[in-house]
Amino acid sequence: MSKQTKYQARLPDSQGFIQYPDNENEIWQALYDRQKGNLPHYACDAYLKGLEDLALPADRIPQLGEIDAVLQQATGWKTAAVPALISFEKFFQLLANQEFPVATFIRSKEEFDYLQEPDIFHEIFGHCPLLTNPSFARFSHEYGKLGLAASKEERVFLARLYWFTVEFGLIRQANDELKIYGGGILSSPGETLYAMSDTPVVKPFDLIDILRTPYRIDIMQPIYYAIDSIDYLDEIVKMDIMGAVTKARQLGLHAPMFEPKSKAS
User: Are residues 233 and 181 in contact, defined by beta-carbon separation less than 8 angstroms?
Assistant: First the structure.
């Protein structure tokens, strides 16, 4: 999380206001318009409800205070402006304090479909709607507290749980329809269509299985895990997650379902 970044976060003025240039507001608008057409078909109901509650502007990057006003009332959460990449320690600390980190930059047109660094569209459009949902908010809070207390080695395994739920999780709704709740998919026009295609493998949620599954951040995911409902996140919180981490460490990782990253890339 703390590697070199090619993006520069924008800083707020003394009033907490961030002035974004027109071209960056246009990128937000283009991303918003494209996903607005996709999401009614593919996003889970809890996300769509949260998106409606947030009432995000379509034509400009929102100010964090606008998001906070809704989140605070819904679940007691708020956002925290951060640089592009932060340490695991800082990340867990913020979640444990019910603050969601938001990098205050937006992707370039060259990385419109998929980017390796979380930008403001990813954080706000992808994640913040579900932070209005009590189950999702509780899961995020408990995850932060677990991560804060975990060792460096344990955090590597915990990262896989976050990756296959909050970032790239799928959900089977009452009619067995597959929908998206992971913000990494919901904020990526390319991955939204890919995840809903017949190409990737979709498996039911299994904690040990997830903790043993390798992933790469720079490719479309070859595998996703689906929960039965957004309320199932409350069931995960009740599991012995750190006990499962210990078991997963003993068992070792599954063989990756992707090619190793070349040294040239």
Answer: no
Q: Are 38 and 192 in contact (CB under 8 A)?
A: yes
pLDDT digits (tens, 9 = 90+) for 22-34: 999 999 999 999 9
pLDDT digits (tens, 9 = 90+) for 94-121: 999 999 999 999 999 888 776 678 899 9
CA–CA gap between residue 191 and residue 37 (Å, rounded): 14
Annotated catalytic residue, options 127, 140, 141, 154: 127
Contacts of 252 (CB under 8 A, 6+ apart): 212
**Considering 142, 167, 188, 191, which one is annotated as catalytic?**
167
Closest CA to 188 of 142, 141, 139, 123: 123
Q: What are the C-alpha distances in Å from 247 to residues 91, 209, 251? A: 24, 10, 6
pLDDT digits (tens, 9 = 90+) for 115-138: 678 899 999 999 999 999 999 999
Catalytic residue among 140, 187, 188, 191: 187
Structure token digits, residue 184: 């990494």
Residue 227 has pLDDT above 80, yes or no: yes
Spatial CA neighbour of 141 closest among 89, 85, 100: 100
Strands 201-204, 223-227: pairing kind: parallel
Structure confidence by residue, pLDDT tens digits, 242-259: 999 999 999 999 999 998
41 is known as an active-site residue: no
Active site residue 187: yes
Average pLDDT on 150-167 reads 97
Chain centroid to CA 15: how far? Answer: 28
The question of whether 99 is a catalytic residue gets the answer: no
Report the distance separating Cα 199 and Cα 202, nearest Å. 9
Mean pLDDT for the chain overall? 93
Active site residue 167: yes
